[in-house]
Design brief:
Chain lengths: ~130, ~130
Amino acid sequence: MRTFDSGKSTFVEVGPIQVARWEQQYQFGTTLPFGAMWYTVPPGESSVRDCHPEPELSIVVAGTGFVEVASGTTEIAVGSAFLLDSEEAHVIHNRTADSPLTIFSAYWMPLADQLAEPALVGEPADV
Amino acid sequence: MRTFDSGKSTFVEVGPIQVARWEQQYQFGTTLPFGAMWYTVPPGESSVRDCHPEPELSIVVAGTGFVEVASGTTEIAVGSAFLLDSEEAHVIHNRTADSPLTIFSAYWMPLADQLAEPALVGEPADV
């Protein structure tokens, strides 16, 4: 068994939040079928808007999250989870005055047929 | 975005613990590269000994876990994680008097070359 202590991880600043990506501090080889991280949003702060091809499953492990996506903002209590789709833009808010918000996230590349179609930037010119 | 509220999940009794397997209440298709569940160990209780080919990554989301494996028992604080190897037997204890222990777990079949060799139960007979 291996253990991973969020309190002893090395967090790096990413804008207003602190992020500890597991692959930067642990050796997993091919054991995990996903990338993993903890991140902390300080009281009153928000993450920068993020959008990526990997679906992302997140578990709130401390505090209360407010997760903003295109359809609105949802409150996520400690112990609950949210799954972001591939290419779903998101911002994570900590609306409390004094409680850090800490989240565990797992993310992975989707199957090829689950990737969003690349956006067309123009029609081919007539030739 | 989809959300998963541990407090609104349907838990079923598995010995002394309550388990909510995600695939029994949500439709994921091939989105997730792992199975997932929440489980709760009541105060003073322990899970039954479990051992399976799937590695299992667990996050303590409420309470404090004591995880017993062959090499000993380790305390896991809320927000921290533990990774059980393929075929690593484990028992999860809640040693508190009044606080439920709730854990999120993800589990998956390992790559073929990571599976434990089947135990030999005897040498082939001479012929």
